[in-house]
Design brief:
Two copies of one chain form a homodimer. By secondary structure, chain A is α/β, with parallel strands linked by helices. Chain A is built from twelve helices and twelve strands. Helices cover 42% and strands 17% of the residues of chain A. Chain A binds a DNA duplex through helix 2 and helix 4.
DNA sequence: CTGAAAGCGCTTACAG
DNA sequence: CTGAAAGCGCTTACAG
């Protein structure tokens, strides 16, 4: 592999001059530029990015941490991040396994050891003690935030979205509405729970204990929740799930118990993963702008890398309540 | 940020000694080691991986290129790759956009500029003129191969799998079987087509022209194919799709035309993405070991990095024909 | 406009 | 067992 020295020698100039034409800028004569270009073409020279990174102290690399890329919530976000990063000439280093602080912390150390310029952290726990200063590089939080984190955040207003869901269900005549929540350390799930409670209370509706279940956002948790709700002392007429995966499980659990959706029971999910729109599913859900969440978080990170010193922001994107076939009027009492 | 020099100074040794204890090996006295460990702890020193990479000429980084991470076929593969890589102390640089040679080539250049140690390339075109030598780093092909590529390949025997599908459908009494293929430059799709033809011919069944459709592996292509097949001069009793996404579209297209599955029409997919197992879907399909494809391709790449000089291999993994609810006996003639 | 020199932070023969 | 020195391939003041 030819180095910058080889090119310089062949072009009859110094490495500094080659470096200058490489970066396009700087004052370098047309004649030098031509000689260098010719030498580059002749040698097939390609700059060594690692050497450049060592010298410039920037790697043009972003670190991305997702809990689990095979959860359909994340690929779309990852795509938004990767494409936006690449458009700005950044690469993304990809890691899975963020559902636990120790592992996340290891990945964070590792990424900073690798000198990434910034980090995008999706779906972290509320109790993660992360301060930006600690890591020396900008960090952007996506989807879930942590308590006391002094970091930019990209997501939606989960509380408002949950309120919208409940208002919609009430408008369809539902009064007995169950909620299947996510992990207790998820700010997103907590926001949805809060919105649910508020809207129910404001409407003067009962918050029956049996109607408050929770799971780990897996399909199986939904199946289980459906079974329990069906045999509840007081069976609800609608179930609001904190995510689509559980909602899918709820749908199947309901079918197993021969409860007809939406005639006997309405089901609402959250997230808007593509599966929810399948003809065989047709889940009513809160659609989050996943690609955009990825794109915006990357743009925000890039701003920080540009030196934007403004205080941390919460970027709340628009969501949409997509009404499909799993919800309808409450059954007559 | 403290450097190795700072640690050396504090420990009263040379940077070379610090480097030695850092890498765990080498002959270094217990006394030196202790002093170095103490200095590392005191300074919070973390080695600069970029500097190390420049010197050792290895970045412990793998490049991964997928056409589209939001296609549910890839996240599971990516997970297998990332986890296997990380277990061996490698990072993965992640890029999307491989459905076109020019872009793929750009990414390949970029990755080699970045000095990745090896590259995993998923689903490339048959006509891509890739030679390993050209790139200077080992490349592993996953899912699709290219003509004349002198590279390791990880995938399944698509031809055999397609034959299994047809044999199964024949055993259910089907004779009029349509095939919806993928892109003509996909070795995987071509293998499936070949298996279909062979098995049909060997069974003495007709290969009616109208029954040979193709698409770009998108849901919409499936919907369209279903519409066409339903109004075909001679309507088939079974449709074999080259992938699950199109099969999902076929299912919905059939429903739109009020064709009942599987009573009037059987449908078989290919890939085994998780959606196919949903209760509302229950697609009969050829399940590929996606995670394992990722894991094995990474292991093969790691072997090459270890200097394994053996000729390129085709690693063919086991697949499973998963029979669910979209197939059944052929309707009476 | 250009080049010589220093240096980014490591590791690796080499000599002792 | 240990350290001084060189060098990985760039870029960046600096002097001319």
């Amino acid at each position: 592999m030819p180095t910058i020295k080889d090119v310089a020698k062949m072009a009859g100039v110094s490495p500094a001059t080659v470096s200058a034409v490489l970066r396009g800028n700087k004052r370098v004569s047309d004649i030098s530029r031509e000689k260098v270009d010719a030498a580059i073409a002749a040698t097939g020279y390609r700059p060594n990015v690692v050497a450049r990174s060592l010298r410039t102290r920037q790697t043009r690399t972003l670190g991305l941490i997702v809990p689990d890329i095979s959860n359909p919530f994340y690929p779309e976000i990852a795509r938004g991040i990767e494409q936006t990063a690449r458009r700005h000439g950044f690469d993304v280093l990809f890691a899975t396994g963020g559902e636990d602080f120790v592992h996340t912390q290891h990945l964070l150390w590792h990424f900073t050891d690798r000198q990434v310029d910034g980090i995008i952290l999706t779906s972290i726990g509320l109790d993660y003690p992360l301060s930006v200063a600690e890591w020396g590089v900008p960090i952007i939080l996506v989807n879930r935030k942590c308590r006391g984190c002094t970091t930019d955040f990209i997501g939606i207003d989960n509380r408002a979205a949950a309120r919208d869901v409940i208002h919609y269900l009430i408008s369809e005549g539902h009064q007995d509405i169950a909620f299947v929540g996510g992990p207790g350390n998820s700010s997103a799930s907590l926001g949805r729970l809060q919105g649910y409670r508020e809207a129910m209370l404001e409407a003067g509706l009962d918050l029956f204990d049996d109607w408050l279940l929770s799971g780990q956002l897996r399909y199986e948790d939904g199946v289980r929740a459906a079974h329990r709700l069906v045999s509840s002392r007081r069976r609800p007429t609608a179930i609001f799930s904190a995510d689509d995966m559980m909602a899918l499980g709820i749908l199947d659990g309901l079918e197993q118990r021969h409860v007809e959706v939406p005639r006997e029971m309405s089901v609402v999910g959250f997230d808007g993963i593509w599966t929810s729109s399948l003809h065989g599913v047709q889940l009513t859900t809160v659609s989050q702008p996943l690609y955009e969440m990825g794109a915006r978080s990357t743009e925000q990170l890039l701003k920080r890398l540009d030196g934007d010193p403004s205080p941390p922001v919460d970027v709340l994107l628009d969501y949409t309540l997509v009404i499909r076939k799993t919800t309808g009027p409450a059954p007559p009492r």
